[in-house]
Each structure stands twice: as C-alpha cells, then as structure tokens.
Amino acid sequence: MTDRIIEFLRNRREDGPCLVLDLEVVRDNYMAFAKALPDTRVFYAVKANPDPQVLDLLARLGSSFDTASVVEIEQALAAGATPDRISFGNTIKKERDIARAYALGVRLFAVDCEAEVEKIARAAPGSKVFCRILCAGDGAEWPLSRKFGCVPEMAARVLEHAHRLGLVAYGLSFHVGSQQRNPKSWDAALKASAAIFRDLAERGINLQMVNLGGGFPTKYLRDVPAVKAYGQAIFRALRKHFGNRIPETIIEPGRGMVGNAGVIEAEVVLISKKSDEDKMRWVYLDIGKFNGLAETMDEMIRYPIRTAYDDDAMEPCVIAGPSCDSVDVLYEKEPYPLPLSLEIGAKVLIEGTGAYTTTYSAVGFNGFPPLKSYVI
After folding, report:
1. Any idea which residues carry the catalytic annotation?
2. Which of 126, 264, 359, 370 is the most exposed place for a label (fewest CB within 10 A)?
C-alpha cells in the first residue's frame, strides 16, 4: 500500500471493485532485479499484467518481454520493445502463430518436444530455441503442474533435433513454481541444466543460455526473502554447477515485478450466517474468483485484506464472491479473520493484487464487468 494509492482511492467516486497499481513500485522492483542479477537479462512476463503503461515503463527501463501469444507480442512491440527483446515463451503454439511472430521479427522460441521443434523449423527457420525442462516446485505457494516441460533426459534429444533441422539450439529453461519462497530452489534445476550442457557439448552442440524462469514472490500474508537473496543464491548455484563457464542467463519475473504494486478496493455486499446456531459468518464481497481473484483457488494465495475496522475484535469468517456459482468461495478451508464490526457497504482493501488479477478477470460472467484498472 502506498500513499499514492491511498490518495487515489480517497478521491474515487465510482462504484464497483477496482485495481489501483503504482508505477513507482514497478520501477523500484525492476531496479531491484537489475541490481540483484546484474548479468542477467530481465524478460517481464507480460501475462502477469499487460497494462500498456506497465509495458511502456518497463520497455523504457530496458526490460525484455516473455510473451505467451501473438497478442502479447504485439503489446510488447507497441510499448516500444524491439523484436530481439521478445521471447515467445509458450511451449504450446499454433504453427500460424509461430509464423506471425517470425514475421514480426521474433527469433526466440520455447519448446519442450520434437513436434514443437518441427513447427518452428517450418514456420520460423533459423530461429533460436530453448527447451523447457521439468523441475520440482517444492516450496512454491502456486506450484506448476506437468503441463509444460519435459524430463531432462529428453531435452538433449529435443535440442539435437532442432540443431539437425537448422535451428539454433540456444539453451534451456525451467520454472521452480510461482510464489517460490525458497531461494535455493534453483539449485537442482541448474544442476540438471549443466549436465545437459555437457551432454550436448560432447555431441558438438554448444548451448549458450539458461532461462531461470519466474517464481520470484511478492509479499502476501507471510514475509518473503528480498530479491537480493535470490540473486545471491542463484549466482552461487551457477558457479557451483557451471564453474567459470557461466552461460547467458535470463529471468522472467511477473508476480515479483507487479504483485506488490497493486491494491484492489472492494465492497462488502452481505454478511450472514447459515443458521441461528452457526458461529461462522459469511462475508460476501463484490469481487470473487471470476472477476479477478482466481488465484484464491484451493486457497493457495492468501491476500492481505485491510479494513477501517482492523483495530476492533476479530473472528474467523468465510469470504466469498458475488457470483451465482458455488465454487466462488475464496477462503473457507482456513477461515479468514475479519472484524466483528465490519458492516455491509464497507470498503475492503486487498493488497498484493497487481499480478494475475486483471488478466484472470472473466468477461461478463453473471453480468459482472471485468475488473477496472487504474495505473498511477
């Protein structure tokens, strides 16, 4: 929460939930990444928050961009990024989208299987490819599934196939899980990466780059290590596994870049109980899973919620969204403490919501509009 956000909300007169994001915090976060990993290129994960003002600021600061679609590529270009600062980082791409990205000048593509390599060889000849490998996401609050990546033993074959088809076998990537609170989590993946580098070198293929992925956290209810701690741990792991021949490195911060820059203002729509004997209050907000708070799924991300009554007595309650869908319950397995004096119509501030809120906001479900967003 910044004074600029507080002042903006004090003067706001519109109805409905909204996100307010402070660009000064985004700037500070970018500079922290650049300082913590000075020899590593920053590729901001556009999917975290593609607001044009965010992209414009980061482009001016020198950031590159990790994109997942042609639309995101076009957004990065519109913000002033040149094609050499854009990675098509999605491992699942239509061949015509690869061709469109190639026509726009993009030459860096992610893969995780031979079939994807073959699409790129046809649609984007001569491009650089990096292969994503699976790795454990232990310690992450939003662990990633096996949807993306291949086992390390397969990666060498995928990249060798790319080399034979005339592509540049450029490097490797991995992701240690979003909201990763353990700075040492990169060690095992870098160990596996170094082994693949050696294997391919013996076959006459010299990889150049390791994409360290995202995973850098933002602060929610629990403290997280500073970016500096991640930089130190990653550099130690690089030296440990690569010695003096450290490859080029890039990172893809999304949540860590914009998460703590945003606050959502919402309103209490209803407070009720399910029976006269029930001690548990249900607090319904005018925002839920379908209009911005999708990451409360399985209660993995627990946002800090502030109210004007926080000095009063607290009791646990269930927090739910406004839609007519029974899964639109934010916190029930582990009830959330809110003030007993909280009233219908009261405003609540949901902190740490700068990432993955506007992008997860559905269009028109139950007639509720997408989440409004203001960048200051």
Report:
1. 324
2. 126
Report the domain count for the chain: 2
Q: In whole angstroms, what is the distance from residue 325 CA to residue 362 CA?
A: 13
pLDDT tens-digit readout, 131-184: 999 987 787 776 676 789 999 999 999 999 999 999 999 999 999 988 998 999
Max distance between CA atoms of the chain, in angstroms, equals: 75
Phi, psi of 277 (to 5 degrees): -90, -15
Same-domain check for residues 246 and 268: no
What's the CA gap between 37 and 31, in Å, rounded?
A: 10
Examine residue 26 and state whether it is found in any structural domain, yes or no.
Answer: no
Q: What is the CA radius of gyration of the chain?
A: 22
- Mention every residue, 6+ apart, whose C-beta is less than 8 A from residue 192: 133, 135, 152, 174
Task: Round to whole Å and give the CA distance between 190 and 249.
Answer: 11
Check whether 355 has a pLDDT greater than 90: yes
- Domain-embedded: residue 15: no
Q: Is the pLDDT of residue 367 over 70?
A: yes
Are 177 and 285 in a shared domain? no
In this predicted model, which residue has the larger pLDDT, 169 or 1? 169
Half-sphere exposure of 35 (CA within 13 A, CB side): 10
- Total-model pTM: 0.95
Domain that holds residue 371: 260-375
Would you state the structure tokens that stand for residue 135, as one six-digit string?
């790795």
222 in the same domain as 95 = yes
| Residue 6: other Cβ atoms inside 10 A | 12
pLDDT at 143: 67
Choose the final residue of a domain: 253, 281, 304: 253
> Is the separation of the CB atoms in 149 and 195 below 8 Å?
no
Q: Are residues 214 and 344 in the same domain?
A: no
